[in-house]
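re: the backbone from monday

yeah here it is again, tokenized this time
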């Protein structure tokens, strides 16, 4: 077991499970038709895509006509935001989002800002939550869209969609959420939630990469991002990724059917890891605890050492994690999420995200914890950043310094 590679980066992507692969295989070589073709092969493909659309829609209590297949959650986010902006009335040029969004949202609204739209970035608290009162105050007569992530990709914060969505609905403003991380982990019911658009994807739920979907409530209108054929109800042109869609549907069906069981298992191993890693001095957890956090996520700051160094040393030992957010780990800038919740740059740079799936085990946690203790000891022994002059007051999982107490 010591030589086993341990994958704790499931918020980045998940391994495909065999039933999903089996659901996809016939659509590569046997049922290979284009859904737009009118012959037998095309009609078979069209029927398969229709069934997948219906199945995924049913899982969130939507209708099939409200679901648009895309190339992933990033495309779904772009389609939602750019598509709505193109249809916005001339006097509705204001968008509200939060400071803890994925870059697929942040960079999209920043571009819209350069195109003449006004963008408001809501602050969050220490756990990453948007205050509904802040949202209510930010809405103006010019606001046409609010977009706030459901399950945060860095610290796991699960926003209260009902509270935020009701404010939007009462104000006559459209509400969109990126649910790439939360789908199949947190219940989503569009009939019970005041929400207009939801971005979903497949590869974070043990499905294939390169496929996702946008839920769009009936009556909402968006402009097309690309020109071409009339696919996806004339909203997203191009031949559908039939094998990917079939895998996405199967992964979603399995994920929802096993949601409670998987969450119980994942929470157990996540909490086992947290309990043991927070025994390491000078550490603290980022984000909320309990059911306000995604079961799959644990983000911990290890003071006085670089997260990238931790990541590389763990990788050499066969333990794979992420430094902050995998989507921004190639950049030298600290995670926008970690700085938004109040971490200083050096704290953000010393943060590691462990993320789990149903395939992980307690034994993997125990091995990873052992490696983590060794890596932290090694790196801190070489660190030039430990302030020897500071008097310490320690508690499990948290270290306060008298000179810096208010900064944590």
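seq for it, each position gets an aa:
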């Amino acid at each position: 077991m010591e030589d086993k590679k341990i994958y704790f980066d499931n918020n980045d992507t998940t391994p495909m499970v065999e039933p999903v692969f089996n659901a996809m295989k016939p659509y590569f070589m046997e049922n290979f038709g284009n859904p737009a073709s009118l012959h037998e092969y095309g009609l078979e493909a069209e029927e398969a895509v229709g069934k997948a659309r219906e199945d995924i829609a049913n899982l969130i209590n939507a209708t099939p006509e409200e679901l648009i297949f895309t190339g992933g959650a990033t495309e779904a986010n772009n389609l939602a935001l750019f598509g709505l902006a193109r249809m916005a009335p001339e006097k509705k040029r204001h968008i509200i989002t939060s400071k803890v969004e994925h870059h697929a949202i942040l960079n999209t609204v920043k571009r819209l800002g350069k195109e003449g739209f006004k963008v408001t970035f809501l602050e969050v608290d220490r756990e990453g939550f948007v205050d509904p009162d802040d949202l209510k105050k930010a809405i103006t007569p010019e606001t046409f869209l609010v977009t706030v992530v459901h399950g945060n990709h860095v610290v796991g914060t699960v926003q209260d969609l009902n509270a935020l969505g009701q404010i939007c609905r009462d104000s006559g403003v459209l509400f969109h959420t990126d649910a790439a991380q939360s789908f199949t982990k947190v219940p989503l019911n569009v009939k019970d939630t005041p929400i207009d658009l939801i971005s979903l994807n497949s590869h974070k739920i043990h499905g294939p990469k390169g496929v996702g979907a946008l839920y769009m409530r009936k009556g909402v209108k968006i402009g097309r991002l690309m020109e071409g054929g009339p696919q996806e109800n004339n909203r997203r042109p191009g031949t559908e990724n039939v094998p990917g869609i079939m895998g996405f549907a199967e992964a979603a069906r399995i994920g929802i059917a096993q949601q409670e069981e998987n969450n119980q298992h994942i929470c157990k191993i996540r909490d086992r890891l947290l309990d043991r890693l927070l025994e390491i001095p000078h550490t603290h957890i980022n984000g909320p605890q309990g059911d306000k956090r995604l079961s799959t996520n644990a983000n911990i700051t290890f003071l006085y050492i670089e997260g990238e160094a931790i990541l590389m040393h763990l990788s050499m030992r066969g333990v794979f994690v992420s430094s902050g957010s995998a989507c921004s780990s190639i950049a030298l800038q600290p995670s926008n999420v970690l700085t938004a919740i109040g971490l200083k740059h050096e704290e953000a740079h010393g943060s590691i995200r462990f993320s789990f799936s149903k395939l992980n085990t307690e034994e993997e946690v125990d091995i990873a914890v052992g490696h983590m203790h060794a890596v932290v000891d090694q790196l801190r022994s070489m660190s030039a950043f430990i302030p020897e002059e500071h008097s310490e007051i320690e508690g499990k999982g948290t270290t306060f310094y008298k000179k810096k107490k208010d900064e944590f």
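DSSP finds 14 helices and 14 strands in the chain. The mean pLDDT is 91.
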